[in-house]
Amino acid sequence: MMDPHGGTLVNLLADPSKDDRSDTPTLVLSRRAAADFEMLASGALSPLTGFMGQEDYQNVLNDMYLTDGFVWTIPVMLPIDDAERDQIGNQETVNLVSAEGDTVGSIAVQDIFKYDKEEEAEKVYLTTDHDHPGVARLFDQGNYYLAGDVTAHRLPSHERFGTYRKTAQELRQKFQEMEWRTVVAFQTRNPIHRAHEYITKCALELVDGLLLHPIVGETKGDDIPAEVRMDCYEAILDNYYPHRHTVLSVFPAFMRYAGPREAVFHAITRKNYGCTHFIVGRDHAGVRDYYGTYDAQRIFDRFSRDELGIEPMFFEHAFYCKRTDLMATTKTSRAMDHEKIYLSGSKVRETLMKGERLPEEFTRPEVEVILRRYYQNE
After folding, report:
1. Which pLDDT tens digit goes with each residue over 96-141?
2. CA distance linking residue 351 with residue 342, whole number of Å
3. What integer best gives the mean pLDDT of the chain?
4. What secondary structure letter does DSSP report for 230?
5. How many Cα atoms within 13 Å fall on the side-chain side of residue 333?
6. What pLDDT, on a 0 to 100 scale, did the predictor assign at position 19?
7. Contact call for residues 275 and 184 (beta carbons, < 8 A)
8. Could you give the CA distance from residue 372 to residue 147 in angstroms, rounded to a whole number?
9. Is 190 part of the annotated catalytic residue set?
10. Which of 57, 134, 151 is nearest to 96 (CA)?
11. Is residue 259 within 8 Å of residue 294, measured between CB atoms?
């Protein structure tokens, strides 16, 4: 099984009895910060042991490496506003509280620094356009970053997807029990359709197992809710995937929509879960037309395979080919445009909201029923 990024799987969970509820100041974590806290605590962000300091932050922005030399493409930061900064003052430790009011851990304050939002937007998202959801979120958050190592007393509680929430160590153990030596991970923030099924099964032909790992953290408002997407995954897994070679789990991160940089981030974190391969498709983690169609694949050329430690598997846009009556891509099909069946997200929404059926060549009927029910009840 692949070593975790940095060589050691981080585990920040400590004895809950050490939970400090005294006069130590508290900081309520936003949904996004809580997702990063959960990823840190459970080892998914190894080798990070907390929220980044200024030196690592600048290194990641400018060079896409941590100061210790490991590839890292997305800053993992804890934003605070002016009032929170004043409240923390010169305290050495701050308790971290979930939105539900539970003290989930603490942070050993190493630094509080102001940052340049324009610079971060330009380097991470390649745009400063506030119509970009990641940029809009960046400019809406506090003006300071709180840096320091994290101690976790418990993971944030969740009412959703309990049986599918696995730490990095738990998934590694699962793969060992299934005797998988090679594992490919697949993620999407969209419902799973025939094109996704096709590329995941192509990848599965080359490895021992497939991890279906949909993101369930915060996404933009017009994305289909995680509950609906998970229903689609369960339906297609039950009917169309070999259970001996497939595991469904959830990825607790939130979507940043950072395109190429986020594709590398998603690969490295799946390495921590024990995966040896990661599927990178067309416009991975993209939004609208901010990134080129295959920029998320080209960025991997910047790093050696030894640096990444996980093998990306690149796929072109898949479609149903009417000429061959098979799923295909432009690499395997000579079909003209009128012989291809694939639908944009807006076309899918439009069709389902009208109560019309999606073609079976585009999506499995079990998935179509779930999506039609969602759009008609919305």
Report:
1. 999 889 999 999 999 999 999 999 999 999 999 999 999 999 999 9
2. 13
3. 93
4. H
5. 22
6. 56
7. yes
8. 45
9. yes
10. 151
11. no
